[in-house]
Specification:
By secondary structure, the chain is mostly helical. It has nine helices and no strands. α2 packs across α3.
């Protein structure tokens, strides 16, 4: 207990130790959601299927299927829903990561960067595994699935995840200063993404005045670009990959600066009277 632990002397050793801590805490976060990890995965898949079912019925009843891109309609729905869910779930997980006053931080190797990294990695693991299983089942039932550029589609999923991390860290840094207002603002942002993410329509079909209402949102660009990689017959003209990358990097830097400032001024007595 009182022995001094050997510290890694190289940058590679430090990174390796940090990766090991993030791995173990990621496993803890995955199992924390449900006592049985398999049940937690099934619940995530059922949530996705519920989204797909609702939008499938809505598109069919309202006659909006003609607005979708030529190709597999279910794949069109999945392309928007999975990026939307990955972004929102990552934001929620990072925002809910243990802060500097958490009891977990009393353990010597633990720090807030590990907590943030493990929260993000556990969400990515769950989402990618859910997507892989759903696509395998759909492939077995409906026949072969054709994706024009799988690498690009996966890159857009990872970019949506990265954007969720960046936005989540900003909210995480602000939450101790306004513990009631910030969760409410984050909730409004997530609800607004139901429409503002553009998962229900194509950017190429929007008139200019409507396009200006959505192109501020990095997730809108990521979903539109993902559909360009998934479908051979769709070439996105009004979205870019550069914009969400730049916005995410800026938000990540601002969020990390804010989290560092908050960590230095954090106190366990902040929430005493709340």
């Amino acid at each position: 207990m009182f022995q001094r632990r050997s510290q890694p002397q190289t940058l590679f050793g430090t990174a390796l130790r940090m990766a090991e801590l993030i791995f173990h805490d990621s496993v803890r976060n995955i199992r924390k959601g449900h006592r049985h990890a398999l049940i937690g995965l099934l619940m995530n898949m059922l949530q996705t299927l519920l989204f797909v079912g609702i939008f499938y019925v809505m598109f069919t009843v309202l006659g909006m299927r003609t607005l979708a891109v030529r190709g597999d309609f279910l794949l069109y729905l999945l392309s928007g829903i999975f990026l939307f869910m990955t972004h929102n779930k990552t934001l929620k997980a990072v925002m809910g990561a243990e802060g500097p006053t958490s009891p977990m931080m009393q353990h010597a190797p633990m720090n807030t960067i590990v907590a943030i990294g493990s929260s993000a990695m556990s969400t990515l693991y769950t989402q990618v595994l859910s997507l892989a299983i759903l696509l395998l089942v759909y492939n077995a039932i409906n026949g072969p699935i054709y994706v024009y550029k799988p690498g690009g589609a996966l890159a857009m999923l990872l970019l949506a995840w990265f954007t969720g991390i960046a936005v989540g860290i900003v909210f995480l840094a602000l939450k101790p200063w306004a513990p009631k207002a910030i969760p409410m603002i984050a909730n409004i942002y997530q609800r607004a993404n139901m429409i503002a993410s553009g998962k229900m329509f194509l950017a190429n079909t929007l008139p200019g005045y409507m396009l200006a209402m959505f192109d501020w949102n990095p997730l809108f660009h990521e979903i539109d670009q993902a559909r360009g990689f998934i479908f051979l017959n769709y070439n996105p003209h009004f979205s870019s990959i550069t914009y969400p990358v730049v916005v995410s990097v800026v938000l990540l830097v601002v969020g990390l600066m804010g989290e560092s400032y908050t960590r230095r001024h954090a106190s366990a007595s902040w929430a005493a009277g709340k």
